[in-house]
Specification:
Strand order of the largest sheet: 1-2
Strand content: under 5%
Order of helices and strands: HHHHHHHHHHHHEEH
Structural class: mainly alpha
Helix content: over 70%
Number of helices: 13
Largest sheet: 2 strands, antiparallel
Length: about 300
């Protein structure tokens, strides 16, 4: 009998890209080598679990009702708290992994060594971005079981869990690309970090405040005399709200609860006109992925310009 050669599974496209990209492979190995990465993961999961228990105890002490009658509310509370913490992690920690990715190479005087290799600028940028986002994505994935725990308690559907993971991943890509662009455009890591966190504060604090102030005026059809002007205001408001992860998550949840739809819904305008609209998370995903692509292209251009000027 002839021995059959065991089949070796072919690596995925992402795995093949990492193996062919020495920058991504080096930084991923450096980040995951040693006990620090696993200690951080363990502490992160422990703190998230403790946060979940604290939320449950706070609600249980404030409501002297059995879990069977309030499980849905507790599930919503835990789910919202976990997603809020993860959004904070993505918006303010993901840029820290990319803000010094390229400017740090200049400060350590290792950028010239990268120039001597045959690695093109676009692969250098993608390798830096992928290696920076990989650990953030890992942190997000280990918290999915806690979101599933809220799903088991009731009040949270599987669609909400999947949408929250999708929003977090898209946010990580967008904010990571922004940090990488500022790292390539600025010569110093401190300047790149200041600009990156200014961008993060504007997107996560200023825009939600503006959306909250405008929402009662824009969405109330009784304050408008023209359906056309009201429709334009609603569309502009929707685009503005869909540029921010917090307002996008809140409005998507509102659409899911009130309209029972995850992809599209209708909004009542002045005069009883119904305007069909796309769910905020769809607009957010398109805007952030296109914005991330533009930022990556600008980063590649900045790296090439730096190579040409040095």
């Amino acid at each position: 009998m002839t021995e059959q050669t065991p089949t070796i599974p072919r690596p995925s496209r992402l795995g093949a890209f990492i193996r062919r990209n020495p920058v991504a492979l080096k930084e991923l190995r450096g980040r995951m080598r040693g006990p620090r990465a696993f200690i951080v993961l363990t502490v992160y999961v422990a703190l998230m679990s403790l946060f979940t228990v604290v939320l449950y105890l706070i609600y249980a002490t404030s409501r002297t009702v059995m879990l069977s009658t309030t499980g849905g509310v507790i599930g919503k509370l835990i789910f919202g708290g976990i997603v809020a913490v993860e959004l904070f992690l993505v918006c303010f920690i993901a840029p820290a992994f990319t803000a010094g990715a390229i400017s740090g190479e200049r400060e350590r005087r290792t950028f010239n060594l990268l120039r001597t290799t045959l690695l093109p600028a676009h692969r250098l940028v993608l390798g830096k971005l992928l290696s920076a986002l990989a650990y953030i994505v890992l942190l997000l994935m280990v918290a999915v079981p806690l979101q599933s725990l809220a799903f088991l308690m009731g009040g949270v559907s599987i669609g909400e869990v999947l949408l929250s993971v999708e929003l977090l991943l898209v946010t990580a890509i967008g904010y990571g690309a922004a940090g990488l662009y500022f790292s390539a455009a600025m010569k110093r890591t401190l300047t790149a970090s200041i600009l990156t966190y200014t961008f993060a504060l504007v997107m996560t604090v200023a825009l939600p405040i503006g959306v909250m102030v405008l929402a009662p005026f824009v969405l109330s059809s009784s304050l408008w005399n023209s359906a056309l002007l009201h429709g334009v205001a609603v569309i502009v408001f929707g685009l503005l709200a869909s540029t921010n992860p917090i307002s996008t998550a809140v409005l998507t949840e509102v659409v899911l609860l009130e309209k029972s739809s995850a992809f599209y819904f209708t909004q009542s305008l002045a005069g009883g006109v119904m305007l069909p609209l796309v769910s905020p998370w769809v607009v957010y995903t398109v805007l952030y992925l296109l914005g991330s692509l533009v930022l990556v292209l600008l980063t590649v251009r900045a790296v090439r310009r730096t190579q040409a000027s040095d």
